[in-house]
From TrEMBL:
Binding-site residues for GTP, renumbered to this chain: 166-173, 191-195, 212-215, 291-294, 320-322
Enzyme category, top tier: hydrolase
Biological classification of the source: Bacteria, Bacillati, Actinomycetota, Actinomycetes, Pseudonocardiales
Assembly and binders: Monomer.
Protein's name in the database: GTPase Obg
Amino acids binding Mg(2+): S173, T193
Species name: Saccharopolyspora taberi
Localization terms from the record: Cytoplasm
Keywords: Cytoplasm, GTP-binding, Hydrolase, Magnesium, Metal-binding, Nucleotide-binding
Domain OCT: 357-437
Start and end residues of each OBG-type G domain: 160-339
Cofactor: Mg(2+)
Length: 487
C-alpha cells in the first residue's frame, strides 16, 4: 500500500575531490622532462530538483542517505582526473529545505527549481600546476578536498489553490471526490483521511487544485490529533473552505461552533510565511460549505445558521455530495476566489538554482589562544584550513610548501604578534603541530631532493609534546618527594 510522507530527515554527502598527481615526464634521452602531473577532478554535487512526477517524500523515508560520486585522481602526461557526477534528487513541488534547528535554507516552488544541497570537494593540483621558479619540479601534489556533508530536513507543503478544512467526518473527502477525479478513501468513521489528497477542478475556463486536509480538532495547533502534521499544507492555499457537517449528532457540536473552533486553530497556527510571500492565514478569503443538506434535519439547521455566517462576510453554500446539489455554484465561487488571488500575486519567477552563499571573510584568517592548552593557538580561516586539508603530511616538501603559503598569507607574523614562541602548539583545522618560525617564505628556495625539505631537518628544538612530558615527569618526582615547596 502506498504511503504519503511529508517530512523526512536526510543525510547528503557530496563527492570528494580527486588527488593531484606528482609525475615527471620521461622519454628516451629525456629522463627528467619536467613535471607533468595532472589535477584531480572535482567531486560531484548533491542537488534537489523539483520534479512534476514526484508527489511525496516517501523515497527519502526509505533511503535517507545520499552521496554523490568522487572526482578521479590526476595522472601523468598532463591528464586531469574526471569530474565526479552530480547526484540529482527529485523532490515534489512545494518542498521546503531546513536545517535540524529549523532554519529555512530553500523553498522549492516551481518545476525545475534546483537547490545545491552539498557542493563537491575541489580537486587537488598536480605538480605541473605547482611548478615555479623556486620549485621547477615539485615532488608532491595537493590532495583533493572532501565534499560537504549535511543533515537536512525536508518538509512538503502542498501547492494547492483551495484547502478544504473541517472536523473529522465532515465530508471533505466526499466533496473532493465529486468536484474532481480524485478518489480518496471515504468511510463513516473519524480520521479516515490520514494524508492530504489533491484534486484538479475545472470551472469554466479556470483550472485549480483542491487539497483535502485531514480532519482538524480543537488543539490541533498544539499537536493534538493530526492537525499539527498537516496544517502546513494550507499555508500556500489561495482560499480556505470550511466544510461543516450539518447532520452530526455529536453533543455540543453545531455549524457555528465548528467554524469558530477551526478559526481559533488557524489563528494560533502562525508559522513564518513572510519569506514565502504568502502573507498571513487570516488574510485569506473564506468560503463556508454547509454539507449533507440532503438530510432534512441538516437542511433545516443550515437554513437557520446561514444568516449568522453570511453576517461575517463569508459566502455560504448549501451542498450535498450525495445529490450533487449546490456543487456547481460552489466550484465557480472557488474559481472566482482563486482568480482574484492569482491576480494579486506578483509574476512567478522562472525556475532557478538555489545555493547557500558562503560568508565573506575579509581578514582571511584569525589567530586565537587555545582555551584547552597553555602556550597553544588556533588558526581559523577558509584559506589556511583548506590548505591544510590539501597537504600530504607524509611528504616533507609538501609540508614546506604549506609553510610558505601560510607565511605569505601572514599567519607567521600574526602568531608572533599573539605571543607564539618557537615550539608553540598550533592547530589549523584538524591538524595540530609545533610552530617553527624557521620555515618562512623568505627561504623557500632551499634546494633539496624531491619530496624533502631541508628546513624541516635543521631544527633540534624540543617539541611541545616533549616539554609537556618533561613537566609531567618533574611534577611526579616532586609528588614522590613529599609535594611542592610551601604546601
Amino acid at each position: 500500500m502506498s504511503r504519503f510522507v511529508d517530512r523526512v530527515t536526510i543525510h547528503v554527502a557530496a563527492g570528494d575531490g580527486g588527488n593531484g598527481c606528482a609525475s615527471v615526464h620521461r622519454e628516451k634521452f629525456k629522463p627528467l622532462g619536467g613535471p607533468d602531473g595532472g589535477n584531480g577532478g572535482r567531486g560531484g554535487d548533491v542537488r534537489l530538483v523539483v520534479d512534476r512526477g514526484v508527489h511525496t517524500l516517501l523515497d527519502f523515508h526509505h533511503r535517507p542517505h545520499a552521496r554523490a560520486s568522487n572526482g578521479k585522481q590526476g595522472r601523468g602526461s598532463m591528464r586531469n582526473g574526471a569530474i565526479g557526477e552530480d547526484l540529482v534528487l527529485p523532490v515534489p513541488d512545494g518542498t521546503v529545505v531546513l536545517t535540524p534547528d529549523g532554519e529555512v535554507l530553500a523553498d522549492l516552488v516551481g518545476i525545475g527549481t534546483t537547490f545545491v544541497a552539498a557542493e563537491g570537494g575541489r580537486g587537488g593540483l598536480g605538480n605541473a600546476a605547482l611548478a615555479s621558479k623556486a620549485r621547477k619540479a615539485p615532488g608532491f601534489a595537493l590532495l583533493g578536498e572532501p565534499g560537504e556533508e549535511f543533515e537536512l530536513v525536508l518538509e512538503l507543503k502542498s501547492v494547492a489553490d483551495a484547502g478544504l478544512l473541517g472536523f473529522p467526518s465532515a465530508g471533505k473527502s466526499s466533496l473532493i471526490s465529486v468536484l474532481s477525479a480524485a478518489k480518496p478513501k471515504i468511510a463513516d468513521y473519524p480520521f479516515t483521511t490520514l494524508v492530504p489528497n489533491l484534486g484538479v477542478v475545472t470551472a469554466g475556463e479556470t483550472v485549480f487544485t483542491v487539497a483535502d486536509v485531514p480532519g482538524l480538532i480543537p488543539g490541533a495547533s498544539q499537536g493534538k490529533g493530526l492537525g499539527l502534521d498537516f496544517l502546513r499544507h494550507i499555508e500556500r492555499c489561495a482560499v480556505l473552505v470550511h466544510v461543516v457537517d450539518c447532520a452530526t449528532h455529536e453533543p455540543g457540536r453545531d455549524p457555528l461552533s465548528d467554524v469558530d473552533a477551526l478559526e481559533t486553530e488557524l489563528a494560533e497556527y502562525t508559522p513564518a510565511l513572510a519569506e514565502h510571500g504568502a502573507g498571513d492565514l487570516a488574510s485569506r478569503p473564506r468560503l463556508v460549505v454547509l454539507n449533507k443538506v440532503d438530510v432534512p434535519e441538516a437542511r433545516e439547521l443550515a437554513e437557520m445558521v446561514r444568516p449568522d455566517l453570511e453576517a461575517r462576510g463569508w459566502p455560504v453554500f448549501e451542498v450535498s455530495t450525495a445529490s450533487h446539489e449546490g456543487l456547481r455554484e460552489l466550484s465557480f465561487a472557488m474559481a472566482e476566489a482563486v482568480r482574484e488571488y492569482r491576480a494579486e500575486q506578483p509574476e512567478p519567477e522562472p525556475a532557478r538554482v538555489v545555493v547557500r552563499p558562503a560568508g565573506v571573510d575579509d581578514s582571511g584568517f584569525t589567530v586565537e589562544a587555545d582555551p584547552e592548552f597553555d602556550d597553544a593557538f588556533v588558526v581559523r580561516g577558509e584559506k589556511p584550513e583548506r590548505w591544510v586539508r590539501q597537504t600530504n603530511f607524509d611528504n616533507d616538501e609538501a609540508v614546506g610548501f604549506l609553510a610558505d603559503r601560510l607565511a605569505k598569507l601572514g599567519v607567521e607574523e600574526a602568531l608572533a604578534k599573539n605571543g607564539a614562541q618557537p615550539g608553540s602548539q598550533v592547530t589549523i583545522g584538524q591538524m595540530t603541530f609545533d610552530w617553527e618560525p624557521s620555515t618562512p617564505a623568505g627561504v623557500a628556495g632551499v634546494l633539496s631532493g624531491r619530496g624533502t625539505d631541508l628546513r624541516l631537518e635543521q631544527t633540534d628544538r624540543v617539541s611541545a609534546a616533549d616539554r609537556k612530558a618533561a613537566k609531567k615527569a618533574r611534577r611526579t618526582s616532586l609528588d614522590e618527594e613529599g609535594g611542592y615547596a610551601g604546601e
